[in-house]
Amino acid sequence: MRAIRTVKLSNWERYFENRIEYIRSKELKYLSRRKYLDAVCVYLWASAPVLITIAILSTYTVIMHEKLTAAKVFTSLSLINILIMPLNALPWVLLALVEAYVSVKRFKGFFDLQNIDMHGLYSLIEGEGKMLQIDKSTFSWTDSSSHSVKDITVTGTQVD
């Protein structure tokens, strides 16, 4: 909630709206490509058994010049049905490999970021063991408060 309040009070709504729309459009392009690939996988899953059966039986009769008998056809169909299950899983395995590749690229981009130098963000006060130093400060609840502490200097030292 505080982040939203900061965005609204700073009048950054249009900027963040444009950024979110840009990121969302990239995500929708990715999702549409994924769904097209999924549709191809479903098509291959549905048509593979028929196409493989036709290809095997036509190759057997046309190229090898053999006659098809009932025993050969039923034996071929039973062997093809045994092989269909692994062949049907192949498109989804390929899809999972593509998704894994994309995930690895994202992780690599994250892990390749430079480390933050914490010493550059936080520095110790120069001096002998000083951890906190406040010089000539005024503390009060409001600007016109009669109960205030004025012109105070506090130094905190490091405890071992």
TrEMBL record:
<dbReference type="InterPro" id="IPR036640">
    <property type="entry name" value="ABC1_TM_sf"/>
</dbReference>
<feature type="transmembrane region" description="Helical">
    <location>
        <begin position="36"/>
        <end position="57"/>
    </location>
</feature>
<dbReference type="GO" id="GO:0005524">
    <property type="term" value="F:ATP binding"/>
</dbReference>
<keyword id="KW-0813">Transport</keyword>
<dbReference type="Pfam" id="PF00664">
    <property type="entry name" value="ABC_membrane"/>
</dbReference>
<protein>
    <submittedName>
        <fullName>ABC transmembrane type-1 domain-containing protein</fullName>
    </submittedName>
</protein>
<keyword id="KW-0547">Nucleotide-binding</keyword>
<dbReference type="GO" id="GO:0140359">
    <property type="term" value="F:ABC-type transporter activity"/>
</dbReference>
<keyword id="KW-0472">Membrane</keyword>
<dbReference type="InterPro" id="IPR050173">
    <property type="entry name" value="ABC_transporter_C-like"/>
</dbReference>
<feature type="transmembrane region" description="Helical">
    <location>
        <begin position="77"/>
        <end position="98"/>
    </location>
</feature>
<keyword id="KW-0812">Transmembrane</keyword>
<feature type="domain" description="ABC transmembrane type-1">
    <location>
        <begin position="1"/>
        <end position="99"/>
    </location>
</feature>
<dbReference type="InterPro" id="IPR011527">
    <property type="entry name" value="ABC1_TM_dom"/>
</dbReference>
<keyword id="KW-1133">Transmembrane helix</keyword>
<keyword id="KW-0067">ATP-binding</keyword>
<dbReference type="GO" id="GO:0016020">
    <property type="term" value="C:membrane"/>
</dbReference>
